[in-house]
Amino acid sequence: MTSANRVITIEGLTKVYKGSTRPALNNVSLDVARGHILGLLGPNGAGKTTMIRILCGLLSPTSGEIYINSFSVRRQLHEIRRIIGVVPQEIALYPSLTAYENLSVYGGICGLKGWTLEQRIDELLPVFGLEKSLHNKVIHFSGGMKRRLNLMVGLLHNPQILFLDEPTVGVDVQSKKVILENLVAINRAGTTMIYTSHYLEEAENLCTDIAIIDEGQIIIQGSMDEIRNSGRFSGSLEEIFIALTGKALRD
Amino acid sequence: MLAKLIYKDILVLIRDRSGLAMLFIMPLALVLIMTSLQDSTFRSMNERGISLLLLNHDNDSMGLAIEREIKASDIFSVHQPANIKEYTDQQVKEAIASGHYQIGLIIPPNATQKIRNRVKENLTTVLSGASIIHNASDSITFVVYLDPATRSTLRSTVEVSVRELASRIESQIVLSELAKEIGARMMIPLTDPGLLRQKSVFYREEYAVKGNKKAIPDSVQHNVSAWTLFAMFFIGIPFAGAMIKEREEGSLARLLTMPCSYGSIMISKVLVYLFVCYVQFILIMGMGIYLFPLLKLPALIMDGRLGTLSVMAITVALAAIGYGIAIGTIARTHQQASIFASISVVILAAIGGIWVPIFMMPPLFRHISKVSPLNWGLNGFYDILIRGSGLQDIIPYMVYLLIFTAGCLLLSLYYQKLRKENT
Fold first, then answer.
1. Among A109, A141, A147, the residue to mutate for chain B (most B Cβ within 10 A)
2. CA distance B391 to B308
3. Contact B257 A89 (CB under 8 A)
């Protein structure tokens, strides 16, 4: 991967929470190429969400450097916030507001206004099948509709880089299909993504690259072909995952 | 961006009906109820409200004078049994114990005659050059029965009134008998000097207010000020709740991943809730001015000081919102915030003089009250409404409140920084 092709660079990232002796992230280094989808996978407590939160600027690292589009997360967070989109694990929407009001608020904060905002909402609504519910309050939405709207908010301002933290958790097959198809389409349009999920089959189909993290360390990284061609593993991503992280239950 | 945040905060606020009720209906109801309750107490203290059962067995000058003076006073509503001769002391006691009257006063039979006899005897003794020998059987005893619920200030009012009247009558008798004796010995007709019927010492009561302000403190002025402050600080509960809800739902985190700082998110909330506090203040003032007179309560006298009051109200609102931000940032859960906010506001209100006026507190609490931001606000409101002060006079209270606000915001920013490092 050339430096020009690198959109996210993580160097020696360590995070130790106050009161904890074990680092949540331990000297992690990782690169993400422009236009790729990196599947960040790992068991519960492996450090996935910590890494996403640090990348988004929600959490300060203990040590290490992160560059997103050459901007330092420590020093140029404001510039980074303009080019990233985040789809959190939680349904980060205002339930008492309508879908339109949520889109208008978040879009407006991201700098979209007037006709540009309206046009973008009109573009995305049919893609996510929410045209009929635009003026309904989110509190009355089904789980799948909320997930789709949650994703739509993250895409409103056409981010160059999209962080997706388990975007399909708890949704029906139909909604999951719509979400995944749209993620592929968005990626083809040039958006780089970091995606975390416990659905390994979904990750295998969607992601161009995989990084498996456990106990705060990246234990394998590369495309599925690279991982298989390494000669160490064969079979599905799930089999590789179990082989690397073991069968023991995690907290 | 700030406009969108404000738009969002307004929408969230107006869609939360129970929260709105808490913000507007609760304070209005509180002011109305507390004013009505305290106004009746106020009236009972200042108008003919204290029911007194009088059993006057002395149909002579002392008994009649005490009866006349008590009836003429503005404090007591005097009741006398029709069949006074058949009415016993025990019946008076039972009437008070059953709560029909607050005070029972029994003037013993022949009280005047006993005093007169004693005075005559003493005068004769003194004028003959001998010493007066105190005889306990000559003394008279007024019996006062009190409802246990009667305030101690009221007890002393009755005691002082009876003592003062008895003492005056006794002095009149002394002077009268002395005049008679001197008149008889000197052959000068000095039967009625009338000296003690003339009052020579008066006192004038006037409220010390600035300028020509005529307003005097009443229950409305106290309650409107006190409960407006309480309501503003009570905003801390829904405010902190809204912050925690936003945090728990993940919306705050999402906002922080957008080109939007924590400061701008807080500024939006401060502006929206400042507006809410001001509307709350205007509604309560309006209720005091227009609604209270319709309910036969004293009207709130603003005396053209809405501007100064508004400045004070906005300063108090800033302090209240700052407190809400601090609680909303530090508390981990909605329950934690609501319990802490409600209990702490009640404590700050109690020590701040919202419930019990400062002058009625023990000395230690009078000092402690000075640390409550509600006390600074209350003093500011009192200065404007009751003492007729202007903006320059309330600046010290405003400075305290603004320092408190700044302290709360700095604490919140510190906790937010800690949170960014650890959660």
1. A109
2. 6
3. no
